[in-house]
Structures are given as C-alpha cells and as structure tokens.
Design brief:
Blueprint (H helix, E strand, L loop, with lengths): L10 H13 L9 H12 L4 E10 L7 E4 L11 E4 H6 L22 E3 L9 E5 L1 H4 L13 E11 L3 E7 L19 E7 L9 E4 L31 H5 L3 E8 L4 E6 L6 E4 L8 H13 L27 E7 L3 E7 L3 E9 L5 E14 L1 E2 L16 E3 L12 E10 L5 H8 L11
Antiparallel strand pairs: 1-2, 1-19, 3-5, 4-19, 5-18, 6-10, 6-19, 7-8, 7-18, 8-9, 10-11, 11-17, 12-16, 13-14, 14-15, 15-16
C-alpha cells in the first residue's frame, strides 16, 4: 500500500464522530488524522483490493499525480493523468490539466475532486490510467470467471453517466458529433460504475462481453440499477448541504452467480422494469429474450428471426417459479403470471386434445434490473491496442455529452464481489467529511 502502513482508530471514536456530525446544525468537518486513517484502513483491508484513490495520496516528486493505495508488493500504484478526450480523438479543444479538477478541501477520506458542467463542447476532461500502464495488471479485470466491485464516494450535482471504470464506449458511431473525428475506435468496454443512466441517480453497474454492443442495439445494455436513488444537489449548494450529500455508489459482478448488482449506501434494493417491450433501450433485451425462447421450440415460430445471433439471446433461468398467480381461467384456457428470479412472465395455456394444459404463448411482463443476470465473461482485450483506459469522472464516447457532474471523494476497485456487510462498512465512510491531513 502506498504511503506506508495505515493507522487504525477505535470503533468508539468512529461512532462518536458520526454522532457528532448527525447532531450538528452547521458544517462539521472532522479534521481528525486518526479518523481518516481508520477510514482508509477500512477500504484497504477488505480482501481483494486492487486500487483505491482517495485524492490525498500523490506522487512524492515531479508531477505529484494522484496515486492509489495498492496491496503490498504491487508493481504500480496507478498514477492518474489528466486529459481532454475530445482533443485526443477529434483534434479540437484545449488540453486538460489537474487545474481543471477543483479540490473541495475535505471529503470522505480528506479530499475530493470536482467534475464540472463544462460549457465548452470541445472540453471533456477526465482523470485516467492509460491502457499501456494497466494492461494485464490487476486493474485489468477480464476473462472467464472473473468478478469485480467498484465503489465511488460522490456528491451528485447532475447527470447520470460514468463515475469510474474501464469503459471506452468507442468513437465509431455514425452521428452528428462524430463528423470530422480524427481517431475512430471501436468500443472497448469491460466494467464501470455509472450514476444511473436510464435510472438517474441510481448505482448503475455496467459490464460487457465484447467491448461493443448488446442485443443488436448500438449500445451495451448489460446493466443494473439500484432501487435507491441519490438526489441531485445544486451546484451552488452551501457547504453544509454538500457535506450531508455524500453517497457510496457501488457495483458488484459475481462471476459464479452471474449477478450484476447496484448498491447505494450499502443497500442493494431490487428494481424491476415493467413492460420492457415498451422501453426505448431494454426492448432490445425483451426481443433477445423472446428470440431465445422461440429458437428453443421446434420449427420456425411466428415472430422468430432466424438471423438473430444465438450469443445475443437473453434467457435468464426460468426453471422453477418463485410464485405463480392465476389471473384468468376458463375450461379451455388458463393465464398465469410466473415470477422467477430475474423475469416475470405471463404464460397462456390451452387444453390439447387429451385435455392437458399446453403452453400456447408467453410474454415478458417485467425484467429484473437489480440484480441483473449477466451470462457472459467480462470482455478480454487481446492487447493494449484493443483495450480502453481506466477513467474517473467521464468515459470516452461518441456523443461527447457532459455526463456526471459533482464531487468524487474516493474510488476503489476489488477483484471480487464484496458482501453486503463489506459494502455497508464502506458506505459508513461517506460521512462526516474529514479535512486533508498535512
């Protein structure tokens, strides 16, 4: 771990400081070096840590870039560079520096950076670890059976896009924003945590099996959304409001259970998407579910697309229903709603010539989006030329939108799916804020 060993503070002190913050009517900054050390220790002592940027630790000399706490013996502490990806890919706009990320002066671990709502469409700065410095390192989580957890402590002002991860969305989509682009690259997505996407303010985990798209849509669609949501905070909010608005966003992907889960403040509240066939994006997942079912039946079925690629079917386990609700029944027809772990299906049955119930149709009524069932491995780039960087605050993408804005006070990555009690412990680090340690 960078910066030497981390001291520990007693649980009594931590509880006392939390209580003092909760009762305070004004901004309460616990400028206690012991409390900060205890929080850092909480993060780094959880098994599976790959990297933890607290935005306090920096290189000792030279550029003094932010560096990560890493396990003892790690080959790199992943210094963060600053860049404007529009300049890198479109060849326009100013270069980015650390000056483009204002510091709060306090945060869950002593400091925080601001991702601003930039008005210049040619300026989209982020902090990043270049692919050349992370390929095949522990941060490059990919391949068969792998698991991952990303936690970001943030105050959300606006937006729903990327917080942190390896999620180069590509610059190859044909749209207005890519006209005149100089550097065209295919998507290089692996894993990342977002501030909601289609459910703004939720903890949205995203993973990809191919770096590119899902279900014949142009975008990657394997994602979860926590049931709980972090409210937006005004950009000009007073310090007390900011200090009370920290949240621990997290995502876990368990390679054994195939579950992708969004966690907000240590809670993985479930979320269902009703009528997915009517959703702008996840209608593609509904079609992938339907095509997989139709393909499993003998012969070509009405509505079946024989050209639909089998590796893009989406058929979560539907062996034994958790519940069955008979919603209509006559002598010759019965309609049931069967709820499974990841789907809710309306099944119509009719009597055959032997008077036995035979399924005649099925309709996907609802799709579980927290947790989300993901049947693939994480995309494994062949080399450092076909993989993306690890970015914080934004990701490279064709539309060049502003994305998330707000404060980020910590980013951690683990190479396993953390348990609920571990994520709860990490969520407790969100408040009260502490001041930087000299």
């Amino acid at each position: 771990m960078s910066g030497g060993s981390v001291g520990r503070r007693s649980a009594v002190c931590l509880v006392a400081c939390l209580g003092a913050w909760a009762l305070g009517g004004t901004t309460a900054v616990a400028d206690d070096a012991g409390l900060r050390a205890e929080r850092v220790a909480t993060v780094v002592r959880i098994p599976g840590l790959v990297a933890f940027w607290d935005f306090v630790d920096r290189e000792p000399n030279g550029a003094k870039r932010f560096v990560a706490h890493v396990p003892a013996g790690a080959a790199s502490n992943y210094p963060l560079d600053a860049a404007n990806y529009v300049k890198d890919f479109w060849g326009v706009g100013p270069a980015a520096t650390y000056e483009d990320f204002p510091l709060l002066g306090r945060g869950p671990f002593g400091q925080a950076i601001r991702i601003r709502k930039e008005s210049d469409s040619d300026f989209r700065p982020f902090l990043f670890v270049p692919r050349s410095r992370l390929h095949d390192t522990p941060l490059d989580i990919k391949g068969a059976g792998r698991a991952v957890t990303v936690v970001v402590w943030a105050v959300r002002e606006s937006g729903n896009h990327a917080l942190a991860g390896i999620w180069h969305e590509g610059t190859d989509l044909r749209q207005h924003e890519t006209s005149g682009i100089r550097r065209v690259e295919r998507g290089q997505r692996q894993y990342a945590l977002f501030a909601g996407l289609n459910k703004e303010g939720s903890a949205c985990g995203h993973v990809s099996e191919n770096g590119a798209s899902s279900f014949l849509n142009r975008y990657a669609l394997h994602k979860c959304n926590s049931g709980d949501v972090a409210a937006a905070v005004a950009a000009d909010a007073d310090p007390h409001t900011v200090d009370r608005s920290w949240h621990a966003f997290a995502m876990t992907f368990d390679g054994a259970t195939r579950e992708l889960t969004g966690w907000l403040d240590g809670q993985a509240t479930e979320r269902w998407l009703e009528r997915p066939a009517q959703d702008k994006l996840l209608s593609f997942a509904e079609n992938a579910w339907r095509q997989g079912h139709l393909r499993s039946l003998p012969g070509t079925q009405p509505g079946e697309d024989p050209t639909f690629p089998a590796d893009q079917f989406y058929n979560p386990p539907e062996d034994v229903p958790l519940s069955v609700d008979v919603v209509a029944e006559t002598a010759d027809e019965r309609v049931e709603v069967r709820e499974y772990r990841y789907t809710r299906v309306r099944v119509t049955q009719r009597r055959d010539q032997d008077r036995q119930w035979v399924e005649s149709s099925r309709e996907l009524q609802a799709l579980k989006i927290n947790p989300w069932w993901y049947p693939h491995d994480i995309y494994e780039p062949a080399d450092d030329g076909s993989g993306g960087p690890f970015t914080i605050g934004r990701v490279i993408h064709s539309s060049r939108s502003v994305g998330f804005t707000g404060w980020i006070g910590g980013v951690s990555v683990y190479d396993r799916a953390l348990r609920a009690e571990e994520l709860t412990a990490l969520a407790r680090c969100a408040m009260p804020p502490v001041a930087p340690v000299p």
